[in-house]
Design brief:
The chain is of the alpha/beta class. The chain folds into two domains: 55 residues; 186 residues, Vaccinia Virus protein VP39 (Rossmann fold, 3-Layer(aba) Sandwich). The chain has eleven helices and nine strands. The strands form two sheets. Strands 5-4-3-6-7-9-8 form a seven-stranded mixed beta sheet, sandwiched between helices. A two-stranded antiparallel ribbon has the order 1-2. A hairpin with a 2-residue loop joins strand 1 and strand 2. Helix 2 runs antiparallel to helix 4 and helix 6 crosses helix 7. The chain is elongated. It starts with 10 loop residues before the first helix and ends with a strand. It holds the Pfam family PrmC_N. Methylates the class 1 translation termination release factors RF1/PrfA and RF2/PrfB on the glutamine residue of the universally conserved GGQ motif. GO terms for molecular function: nucleic acid binding; peptide chain release factor N(5)-glutamine methyltransferase activity. Its EC number is 2.1.1.297.
Length: 276
């Protein structure tokens, strides 16, 4: 295979190459050479060794083959924190920070919060790191995902209790002051599952293999038994699901049902309060 990095390539010349999006290119260059963004400038005349060129070529090829940058370098920033990633978990996305912000606004002092389907632990770790007074519990059905989440809690000095659970199965009769979730909500057969980064992410964390609402239905139906009176349930969902999720919440007796929009103007999170 022809190397994507020519002999004698310098850091400066590689920053100008047009193989990838400039941001992806810079991230992979920093990762391959173990350089900071500042060092890319101060060492612009540096000539890559043969080993460095081979390493960078391999990374560039993986990206050209479609693999997400976050999986290639094994990390992604979320809510100002650094998260380790593997293909066992979804890649945290900026729009999910809206769910964290809404949760923080509704989490009482020394409150108990449950994150359902935690994946990388991004939501739970962000909450626990920002609010060390809170008691944060996070669950997932995937042991591999929980292993990643535990590492992320440790590396970010966040105290989170992790449970291996299929939704509410391991929570027994526990109650919480807030429940949050970013569950699988893409409908089975949706064309987006075969496009872009989603091709590489765990399918079971993306789709419910049904109409996209089955996980949301289970959460909405089960949450009242685990929420204190007046506590909030907040859920992220698809770009076109806010009306359906509001209807689910209303049908189950939640109050103050509403949706919130992300920075792109998409109704991204819907929630309501229980009056049990």
């Amino acid at each position: 295979m022809t190397s994507l990095v020519p002999p004698g390539a310098t850091v400066a010349s590689l920053q100008r190459q047009a193989l990838l999006d400039p941001v992806d290119n810079r991230i992979l260059l920093c990762h391959a050479l173990n350089l900071s963004r500042t060092a890319l400038i101060t060492q612009s005349d540096r000539v890559l060794t043969a080993d460095e060129a081979a390493r960078l070529s391999a990374l560039l090829q993986r990206r050209l083959d479609g693999e997400p940058v976050a999986y290639i370098i094994g990390r992604r920033e979320f809510y100002g924190l650094d998260f380790d990633l593997t293909p066992a978990v979804l890649i945290p996305r900026p729009e999910t920070e809206l769910l964290v912000e809404l949760a923080l606004e509704r989490l009482p002092p020394r409150g108990r919060v449950l994150d359902m389907g935690t994946g990388s632990g991004a939501i739970a770790v962000a909450l626990a790191h920002t609010r060390p007074d809170a008691t944060v519990t996070a669950l997932d059905v995937s042991p591999d995902a929980l292993a990643v989440a535990r590492r992320n809690a440790s590396s970010n000095d966040a105290t989170v209790r992790f449970l291996h659970s299929d939704w509410f199965g391991a929570t027994a009769d526990e109650t919480f002051d807030l429940i949050v979730s970013n569950p699988p909500y893409i409908a089975d057969g949706d064309r987006h599952l075969a496009e872009g980064d989603l091709r590489f992410e765990p399918a079971g964390a993306l789709t419910d293999y049904a109409d996209g609402l089955s996980a949301l239905r289970r959460i909405v139906a089960g949450a009242p038994a685990h929420l204190e009176r007046g506590a909030w349930l907040l859920m992220e969902h698809g770009y076109d699901q806010s009306d359906a999720v509001q209807e689910l919440l209303t049908a189950h007796g939640y109050t103050d049902v509403q949706s919130w929009h992300d920075l792109a103007g998409i109704a991204r999170v819907t929630g309501g309060r229980t009056l049990r």
